[in-house]
Amino acid sequence: MLESLRTIVQEVNAAKDFGEVLKLIVHLVKQVTKTGTCSVYLYNPEDDNYVLMATDGLNPDAVGKVHLSSRQGLVGLVAAKAEPINLEEAEAHPNFAFIPETGEQRFRSFLGAPIIHHRKVLGVLVVQEQEKRRFDESEESFLVTISAQLAGVIAHADATGELDRLIHPREGVWERVYPGVASAPGVAIGSVVVVAPSADLNVVPLRHVEDIESELCQFRQAMEQTKRDMHALDKSMVGKLSDEERALFDVYVRMLDDHALGGEVVSLIEEGICAQSAWSQVVLRHIRMFKSMTDAYLRERASDVEDLGRRVLAYLQQSETKRTTYPDRMVMVGEELSAASFADVPLEKVAAIVSVKGSRNSHMAILGRAIGIPTVMGVVDLPWASLEAQEVIVDGHIGQVIVAPREEILETYIQQIYEEKLLAADLEKLTDEPCVTTDGHQIALWVNTGLRLDALLSLDRGAEGVGLYRTEIPFLMLDRFPSEEEQRKSYREQLEMFAPRTVTMRTLDIGGDKDLPYFPIEEANPFLGWRGIRICLDHPEIFLVQLRAMMRASEGLNNLSILLPMISNLAELESALELIYQVYDELTEEEGYEIEMPNVGAMIEVPAAVFQIREIARRVDFLSVGTNDLAQYLLAVDRNNPRVADLYQTCHPSLLRALCHISEGARGENTPVSVCGEMAGDPIGAVLLMALGYRVLSMSATNLLKVKAILRQVSLAEAEALLEEVMLMPDAQSILAHMETALKRPEIIGLFSRTKVH
Ligand code: PEP
Ligand code: MG
Questions:
Q1: Which atom of ligand 1 is nearest to the CA of 366?
Q2: pTM, rounded to two decimals
Q3: Interval between CA 503 and ligand 2 midpoint (Å)
Q4: CA 353 to chain centre
Q5: Nearest Cα to Cα of residue 334 among 350, 319, 317
Q6: pLDDT in tens, 439-478
Q7: Known catalytic membership, residue 259
Q8: Does residue 173 sit in helix, strand or coil?
């Protein structure tokens, strides 16, 4: 049974569409259980009935036509009770009903299992037999297991609209709405460009081509190159491997022949599919086939096919001419986009970013916000590889991607884009206005930077300083560590751009989800592992070079502050401070630089630091609260995991209490404290932070004017009164709702407007 289960899961994964999955399941379940009939009924919310959606055994014409309520027949009973029903003498059961439309013969035995997802009955999976038969326990648990697997597939199909399309087939292109995590505000309509990593068979985007000859030619070349490699490998192994073992290379070469894999690929290319995608489709199909074989030796061959597949794909990707034309409004779509994905595309054309993995606080999302590009992360159901060149709407406010939108939806969004432009123009009028509350309290609005572009944007928006320059971002764009001189130059550029305003440079904060391609860190729990200051202290050669580059860059400007990330104990802080003083002394006393000692601060982003706030505050010139990580660590919610994105709440009462403790601790030591996490750039978050005592807020440039607009509309006294009220509330939802209601006023209504389209 386990083997059959594995096969079913593989076949299901390989199936192209949802209808095909259902057909496959009923077919395979019927085979495995050796019954006369297997069928799937799915819940249709429109008539509150269960509709026969696939069958092997009943009349195929009945599919889509037979609707049963939860009071009808044994199928209805399984759904109503939400538990399996196993009957040897079905006809004797009071709920037995004969449904002639299904074309069923009178059956005697019945086994039905509910298909349940998140406590909701989505359908019923049934096997039935004309003969008298007792389905045994293992058959019953097999059906329950398949139903549980099927539940995930159905929920996915529901999210993507496939379920609806199957139950209500209609003509024409279908609009599909994919939910994700709202990660950078704004709306964009554009054409998809799929960004895929290399030599990975599973992530080859499906592209259609017109120049079939050129694809065939690329494919043949890649085959020839791989065959040559195989022959060379074969020769180099003479004497090292036995003749039998070496025979494998021969098998590889034969697999590439026209009457084997090669031939299938050529046919697909001739249908207009690009060589890379044709190759990956064929290879993946063969891998699945080998994996499902019962013979252990043959199953093992799957990895040979995979290896061969990767080799050919690498050649195909090499021969691919680098893309030079991009649509003017391109939507970057990928499975796991990272900062490095920007390296290959013209940034000025990027209208939106969509990533299947990641969440609001992934670094890609932070970059999206920094540059002002609508971003939706964690769109887990998106069939991203097949979206090349499709028109999509990306809604970064509520987090959704709409593929093939209907005319009315397009119009709604075109109107929204227009209104947002008006709001932006309105906000721009505030650029030179001070950020002062209605009762005269000044709040300093600083910016977070990392790219040259966001620094420029920040200057346009009237930033009063840089509260966080993420130095790892330029590091992420390279293929090796930058030299001291390279670093000095880029730091100098930032410092010059903002002088005389302060630029707070954070020392290298890699690890977690920020992996340098040339310094990979493999860990089971990267956010709890080797990250931030921990890496820098273990690699003083990297840390010292960076500190030297920063201080040398500040010569003559003296507007540098240095910020230490991920401090979780005093020893780390003291060791880092020692190295900073050491560099300063070397530069000024031994090398003759005339530099003022920069202010040095610590990030408060780990709960341990919150509870040692006074000890830390005493040792540094300033503190900066990183709410992104503090929320992640305090709430035990991965900032990148879309499954738990709803639990990532910056208005959580515990986080507000921690922020209060930090603010009071810093005040007690007379140490300036700012906030540089994303909460500072959220209009409601900013009001709360001001009320909590924070007077310097550092945020993405795109949020600066929105935050200024709201702070100019409230008084500190009002914000403090609101804080007092929300501090008594039990959860983030109530706090957020209360704040929104209290702060919605005509002058700033645009800051809260959101449209949900379904
Ligand atoms: C934070 O954690 O809040 C922060 C500002 O740092 P980063 O997002 O770069 O981890
Ligand atoms: Mg952080």
A1: 8
A2: 0.71
A3: 17
A4: 11
A5: 350
A6: 999 999 999 998 777 788 888 888 999 999 999 988 877 7
A7: no
A8: coil
